[in-house]
Structure formats: C-alpha cells, structure tokens
Amino acid sequence: THCITVVLLTFQTNILTELKNWELKLIQHHKLQMRQEKEKHATQVKQLENEMENLKELLHTYEISISRKDEVVITNLTQALEKQKERVVLMRKFTLWRIQHVKAKKEEYAIRMADKHFQTALMKKVWAAWRSFSEEKWKNKVARACQLRAEDVCVQLTNDYEAKIAELTATLEQTRAEILRLHCERDQYEDTMKKAFMRGVCALNLEAMTMFQSK
C-alpha cells in the first residue's frame, strides 16, 4: 500500500509539473505574440507620424512658395505702375511743352493729341489695374485649391490611421479572446485530469481492499 501511494504521489507530481510547464510555455508564447503585435503597432504608428510630418513640411513649403510668388508679383506690378506713372507724367509735360511752343493754328490739334495720349495712358493704367486684380483673384483661387487639397490629404491620412488603429484593436481583442479560451481549456483539462486521477485512486483503493478481504 505504501508503494502504491508513493507511485500515485509521484504520478500526481509529474502530471502537475507537466501541466505547470505547459502553462508557462503557453503564457510565454502569448507574451511573445503580444510583444510582437505591440512592436508592429508602434512601427505603424511611427510611419504614420512620419507621413504626417512630411505632409506638414510639404504644406509649409507650398505656403512659403506661394508667399514668395505673391511678393514677386506685387513688386513687378508696383514697378510697372511706377513706370507707367512716370510715362504719363513725362507725356503730359511733353504735350504741354509742345502746346506752349506750337503756333496758334496748331494749338487745337496739339490739345487734341494731348488728350488722346492722356486717354491712352489712362486706359493702360486701367488695364494694368484690372490685370492686377485678375492675377490677385487667380492667386487666391490657387491658394484655396492648394489648401483644400492639403486638407483632403490630411483627412484621408487621419481616416487611414483610424482604420489601422481599429484593425489593430480588433486583432488585440481576438488575441485576448483566444488567451481566455485557452485558459478555459486549461482549467477544463486540469479538472478532467483531477477527476481521472481521483477515479484512478478510488479504483486502486477498491482493488486494495478487495485484495485484503480475500486474504
């Protein structure tokens, strides 16, 4: 009887040791999977952050480029207006000088020519102003289009980022559910092994009692 008890205890110890080792291996395996998923998630988040930074830098570069183009256009228009103004002033002075030195019979003709030149200069000035307004309107339109495009890109990146996060979250939940299922299976397996062990012990005890009674 003592030998049977020792054998049973040894058998029980071996089973419990095997179960413990199996449990430790299972936990280590799932810890490794969780660490790999976290590293993968961190890598994807870092890539998305780098893409966001690159887009911000690109948007900043576009803004600087548009601002510089605006300054150049304004400077060119200002210089053109100044030159046009100087031409108008010189033209008027020249016309007045001609009127003063021309003969009386050409006075009316000279005045008419001066008015014609003045109207021409005025029309050029109006044309320059209208062209400046059109270019300003076009620049605003281009800037607005660039801004809308940048906003669309940012929104698209945000949606992609949220979708990836949702996908990773679902994967994490599935992993947790799998771990919980494995724990339940382990508990059921341990309970089944305990019941089987107890049935074996009971059978051995009954057999031992039968042997003693027969003796």
From TrEMBL:
Keywords annotated in UniProt: Cell cycle, Coiled coil, Cytoplasm, Cytoskeleton, Repeat
GO CC terms: centriole; photoreceptor connecting cilium
Compartment list: Cytoplasm, Cytoskeleton, Microtubule organizing center, Centrosome, Centriole
Organism, scientific name: Chloropsis hardwickii
Keyword Membrane applies: no
Broad class of the protein's primary localization: cytoplasm
One annotated GO biological process: eye photoreceptor cell development
Coiled-coil ranges per UniProt: 31-65, 158-192
Family recorded in the similarity comment: Belongs to the POC5 family.
InterPro entries: POC5 (IPR033351)
Described function: Essential for the assembly of the distal half of centrioles, required for centriole elongation. Acts as a negative regulator of centriole elongation.
Protein's UniProt name: Centrosomal protein POC5
Keyword Repeat attributed: yes
